[in-house]
Amino acid sequence: MHAWPASEVPALPGQGRDLRIHDTATGTLVTPDPGPVARIYVCGITPYDATHIGHAATYNAFDLVQRVWLDNKRQVHYVQNVTDVDDPLLQRADRDNVDWVALAEQETALFREDMTALRMLPPRHYIGAVEAIPGIVPLVERLRDMGAAYELDGDIYFSVESDADFGKVSGLDAATMRHLSAERGGDPDRPGKKNPLDPMLWMAAREGEPSWDGGSLGHGRPGWHIECVAIALDHLGMGFDVQGGGSDLAFPHHEMGASHAQVLTGEFPMAKAYVHAGMVALHGEKMSKSKGNLVFVSQLRRDGVDPVAIRLALLAHHYRADWEWTDDVLRDAEARLARWRAAVSRPDGPPAETLVEEVRDALAADLDAPAALAAVDRWTARQEEQGGTDTGAPGVVSRAVDALLGVAL
């Protein structure tokens, strides 16, 4: 599966910063030390309704992670998956009486277009669940052979009790885990499971649903968590720098994936930092496909909204914050974009070297994008009020906000 084209990232003078970022597992700010190549895995979409503002906010956060690393003269090995077979996708295809493969391809193509328009840097490896099945099957077989998985009516489940470190990603108690498992795709009430929290690794073939040859597992399809584990281990290995996604993935998805990988390899942890973006609401409720309260990037673009303004609307909120999308949020972003573009269109301006360092400092401090925007706003205000004589300043500002914030002026 191919990703989307990369926009050029301008090189800036001076030295970038080491990134300090919030790790869900420890509840603290950590400073990943990736060496010359930083490794990051970000969980992708299930392609049946793409791309809403909640998606865009999440991928914007991890785009900033990459930009901080690139500014610090590191290469970035970024991997993202596409869950192109799963119950919600099949249910949507059945509801709309369309082929599930065609639906997945259509929505994935739309997601690529939106990512390109928003100038999100693409992953080096963009892998669909279906194409990962040949690598998933051996992992499930290994877990079964190790005694860490068991069969229930043809389905294969992972035993969470096989991992002594289970629970260290989310830090939740068992009751909360059980509640969230039922809410987020698990089946804690299924009779016969050894532990209500045990997640499915391999679903035996169901009538009328797609299935693949799973060797000794029989025909079926993979569970959600093992999909990401197989892709991450194949392309990044254990102990990669950042595992990313929305805050609703901390449990069960990232918790379960970590346990799968740790049992398979005997190593801990799967990722050095688990980083989670906040949720975006609309009309007082979390924006979600199940509720249908979605604002789509593609619809905004069709309505004539500049994608750069959409990106600025996202950047106006700290990535870990829960916030609400409103018309005012977008209007504020459009006004900010107009001011910035007017300021850099002048032939000279106030010196901008301090601005570059302020934006670097803000992003290195747990991706404080609002503080970075405020720094650019201050330079813009000086330009509007008094101008300047530095003929290179507008170009420096343009390159800085492009390289560090992904905002093209």
Describe this structure in words.
- The protein is α/β, with parallel strands linked by helices and 409 residues long.
- It has a domain at 21-282: HUPs (Rossmann fold), CATH 3.40.50.
- It contains 13 helices and 15 strands.
- The strands form four sheets. It has a five-stranded parallel β-sheet with strand order 5-4-3-11-12, sandwiched between helices. A five-stranded antiparallel β-sheet has the order 6-7-8-10-9.
- Strand 6 (149-152) and strand 7 (155-158) form a beta hairpin.
- It is globular.
- The two termini are 31 Å apart.
- The model has no long low-confidence stretch (mean pLDDT 96).
Quick take:
The protein is of the alpha/beta class.
Draw up the topology in text:
Elements: E1 21-23, E2 28-30, E3 37-42, H1 53-71, E4 75-82, H2 87-96, H3 100-117, E5 125-128, H4 129-145, E6 149-152, E7 155-158, H5 174-183, E8 200-204, E9 212-213, E10 219-222, H6 224-235, E11 240-246, H7 250-265, E12 271-277, E13 280-282, E14 285-286, H8 297-302, H9 307-315, E15 323-324, H10 327-344, H11 353-364, H12 369-386, H13 393-405
Parallel strand pairs: 3-4, 3-11, 4-5, 11-12, 13-15
Antiparallel strand pairs: 1-2, 6-7, 7-8, 8-10, 9-10, 13-14
Helix pairs in contact: 4-6, 6-7, 9-10, 10-12, 11-12, 11-13
- Summed up, the helix count is 13
- Widest beta sheet: strand line-up: 5-4-3-11-12
What's the CATH H-level superfamily name of the domain at 21-282?
HUPs
CATH topology of the domain at 21-282: Rossmann fold
Distance between the termini: 31 Å
Overall mean pLDDT stands at 96
Question: What portion of residues is helical?
Answer: 40-55%
Shape: globular
Q: Give the CATH class of the domain at 21-282.
A: Alpha Beta
Query: H/E order of the elements?
Result: EEEHEHHEHEEHEEEHEHEEEHHEHHHH
| Percent of residues in β-strands | 15-25%
